[in-house]
Amino acid sequence: MGWNWGASVVTAVVQLVYTAVTSRVLTPADFGLVAAALLSVRFVTYFSRFGLSSAVVQRERLGRLEESTALRLSALFALGFGLLVVLLAPVLGVLVRSPETAQITRWLSVGVALTALTTVPEALLRRRLRFRTLSMVRVSSFTVGYLGFGVGAALLGAGVWSLVLSSTSQVAIALVATTLLARPAFREGFSRSVASGLVRFGGTESVTGFLQFLTYNLDTVAVARYLGPSAIGQYSRATYLVGVPFEYLSTAVTAGLLPGFSRVQHERSRFAGALRIAVGLQAAVVLMVAAVVAAAAPALVPWLLGPGWESAAQVLPFVAAAQALGYLDSVPSVAAVAKGMVGRLLALQTVSLVVNLALIGAVVLKGPALVPLAAAWSLGSVVRLGLYLVWIVPRLGVTRVELVGRYAFAVLAAAVASAPVVGVVRVAGSTGFWSMVGSAALGVVLAGLLVVSPLGRTVRTDAGGLRSRLVNR
Question: What are the φ/ψ torsions at residue 325 (nearest 5 degrees)?
């Protein structure tokens, strides 16, 4: 957990520096073109991995034959889905009403293939709990790929292609590093029975992830289709500002929890205890960050992105709420995967997708606009979290009351932390950097006082449980 969190912080800083520099060099339309192309590519990327990472980590026994089979499957998926992106590039461009993205999409297909090839080496390192190694790879690949290749190309005038280069080079570096460090078996042959088991489990998990991706991105598809490249550029930057830290916060937790939960999947008390701790601490951190970012949007966006991003500042509070609520279900989701409950997760994501389609569709019929679309996304995230509490949580050995209580305290802590920022930035209208930082720091101090008060007993218990596990590991 320590290495995951450390790498997440460093990588988030790298990404924010990259965003701050490129947003001043490139235009919203440039970001919109790449966002539309990436959106198209990600439709295929979920299947290019085909859930092999989770299947490899969750499997109780994994020998060299299983490693070799998984690696050969990933190579087959890399080739097949990379070519599929190239062939579908024009169709995907029409889907988002941006035909000029077709050429960008073809180049991004290289990243799709490289990502698929990275799946098994990375999963083996996770299974072996080599998180220090993974963290070093992650930090170095992002630093070189985004700050080295990406920023360098942008400053040299590469325009929209600098954005393509940054993501592709980062994945390429990660592939080389993880393969050399994991040394996966390849020459031990291919087993049809092993492949069948991996594909059956991983395929269900992959379809679930794909439906989750659709659910999370319906609003972006609507913006791309109805409002054009400039609008999606504004929207994607707002999503990016909160998406990067939340994704890293969530990944830092879930990357360590899947192998951990999988190892104790049949030990009810240990499993439930770890789940309660992870849910409580993640909710407290994620909701507090979301509330502070949402409150500081009028000052934060101009400081990070520069002038010309007013629409991004308007939608940021809604996007922050949607992102935070979306990541609150990541821990129960990982726990369910460790328990092998991929079928139930698939059903949940299907219902969630239908709900979001209805909400986004209602906004589109009324007249699509950035803020209403973001608000619909937020409401859909509330519904999805409720579905987790109803369908998934009772089968994980914990009660709904235990988790709802932790969520309620996290909401209270978020309100306390954001109150000074609301007063300084939104009420008093002070958008200076030090005013924003000072009010945010005061909010964190007040939230800390809440934690040490009688109301914070549960979160203190969770933190104590985590400390106990670390000391006695």
Answer: -65, -35
Same domain, residue pair 186 and 222: no
The string of pLDDT tens digits covering residues 113-133 is 888 888 889 888 988 888 889
Backbone angles phi, psi at 459, to 5 degrees: -70, -30
Euclidean distance between CA atoms 161 and 31, whole angstroms:
10
DSSP 50-94: TTHHHHHHH-S---HHHHHHHHHHHHHHHHHHHHHHHHHHHHHHH
- Is the residue at 205 inside a domain? no
Distance CA 419, CA 442 (A): 9
Record the tokens describing residue 175, joined without a space.
């592939």
Cα–Cα distance, 58 to 50 (Å, whole number): 14
Residue with tokens 């040394």: 183
Kindly state whether residue 195 falls inside one of the protein's structural domains: no
Picking from 267, 255, 252, the residue whose alpha carbon sits closest to that of residue 339 is 267
**Residue 425 domain boundaries:** 213-473
Place of tokens 């997440």: 8
- Domain membership flag for residue 198: no
Q: Are residues 118 and 258 in the same domain?
A: no
Q: What is the spatial distance between Cα 361 and Cα 357, in angstroms, rounded to a whole number? A: 6
Structure letter (DSSP) for residue 394 = G
Return d(Cα 217, Cα 187) in angstroms, integer: 40
Question: pLDDT digit string (tens) for 252-311?
Answer: 666 667 777 887 878 888 888 888 888 888 888 889 989 999 999 999 888 888 788 888
Q: Verify that 174 and 219 share a domain, yes or no.
A: no
Q: Are 166 and 145 a contacting pair, CB within 8 Å? A: yes
Burial 395-433 (b: 16+ CB within 10 A, else e): ebbbeeeebeebbebbebbbbbbbbbbbebbbeeebbee
| Cα–Cα distance list, 250 to 145, 239, 302 (Å) | 22, 15, 26
Is residue 368 classed as helix, strand or coil in its secondary structure?
A: coil
Residue pointed to by tokens 């393969």: 179
